[in-house]
Design brief:
single chain; 2 helices; globular; about 25% strand; alpha+beta
Length: about 100
Amino acid sequence: MDGDAGRLAEDEHQHTYHVGDDELPSRAVVYAVASVRNREPMLLPSLHERIDPNALDALFADTRTNGERSDGHVSFDYCDCEVVVFADDRVVVRCDE
């Protein structure tokens, strides 16, 4: 597992969560936002209210030839934060403070 996986790197305006090797992007989003909002993940609104978690996971799944996706991103709002999921295993969270 990547040494940075699951860690939240912060700067003044955004927080970057590094997705673990076996972690689904949808789970990473919930944990990243929970960490930024200083809340338990189970206490956040359902991710289904903003985006289809299965579609998000499929978007960044390995290709049919088992190749990793190395390009692309998707962005959406969740819990008053802008969330951007990147193909390079990053979730960037920007929230109104």
